[in-house]
Amino acid sequence: MAAPVCILTCSPRRGGNSDTAAAWLRTAFSLPAEVLRVADKAVHPCVSCGYCAERPGSCVLDGPEDGAFSLLKALTAAPAACLVSPIYFYHLPAQAKALIDRCQRFWTGVPPGRGTPFGAVLLAGRPQGERLFQGAELTLRFMAHTLGLKPVPPLCLYGVDAPDALAGRTELRERIRNYAAELEALAGHGRSF
Ligand SMILES: Cc1cc2nc3c(=O)[nH]c(=O)nc-3n(C[C@H](O)[C@H](O)[C@H](O)COP(=O)(O)O)c2cc1C
Predict the structure, then answer these.
(1) pTM for the whole thing?
(2) Please, what are the domains in the chain?
(3) What number of CA atoms fall less than 13 Å from residue 5's CA on the CB side?
(4) Is 90 in the pocket of ligand 1 (CB under 6 A)?
(5) Is the beta carbon of 12 within 6 A of some atom in ligand 1?
């Protein structure tokens, strides 16, 4: 059976804006799609032990108590993927950054992905700021490169702060729907590692 579109929602705030945007995104895809909450998966941070330098693709922290392997597998096997995240201090929350650092296992060797389009919906509380999303965008582009995914420029939403800030925002829902269509148009067939 084909893997579903992978939507990673990255806020620790349950039921907040990222979770709402992820749910909107999921229903906007015509392909089957699943939402995975990174903060619920207990992804441990990279400890720079050097294990993966000797064994590309493997991580000493993988195991039943840790969610990185299953999340990276879902991401690279999907026909399309999208991360949904708040901006924290001009970047991504710690839980998402932990997952990104766990991609270090693919820094050497063959990237596991096969060009899956990889987008992001980024939400920030501030109503403006030219550089608000730059840190996250650069890191996500480099993450995509390391995993063998095709980075798609993120959809950046300003002025989304209170947990229910998306309620009734039909114009933002429409932008998210159009973004899903853009990703789906680029979708191919992922593979697993
Ligand atoms: C620790 C922390 C750091 C934040 N840093 C920023 C920031 O640098 N810029 C900004 O515009 N909003 C910032 N925010 C606001 C969030 O991006 C905003 O509330 C967002 O909608 C939260 O999404 P969520 O409901 O999915 O958690 C921060 C919020 C928290 C809790």
Answers:
(1) 0.96
(2) 11-185 (3.40.50.360)
(3) 28
(4) yes
(5) no
Q: What is the pLDDT of residue 109?
A: 86
Q: Write a three-state SS string for 157-188.
A: ECCCCCCCCCCCCHHHHHHHHHHHHHHHHHCC
**Structure token pair of residue 16:** 């907040």
Q: Could you tell me which of 91, 175, 161, 96 has the C-alpha nearest to residue 131?
A: 91
Residue 88 alpha carbon to ligand 1 centre in Å: 5
How distant is the alpha carbon of residue 153 from its chain centre?
13
Let me know: does 81 contact 6? Beta carbons within 8 Å: yes
Cβ 54 vs Cβ 103: under 8 Å: no
Report how far ligand 1's centroid is from the alpha carbon of 89 (Å): 8
State yes or no: pLDDT of 55 exceeds 60. Answer: yes
Residue 135's alpha-carbon distances to 107, 132, 140, 147, in angstroms, are: 20, 8, 9, 19
As a whole number of Å, the end-to-end CA separation of the chain is 16
Q: Which two tokens stand for residue 96?
A: 């998402």
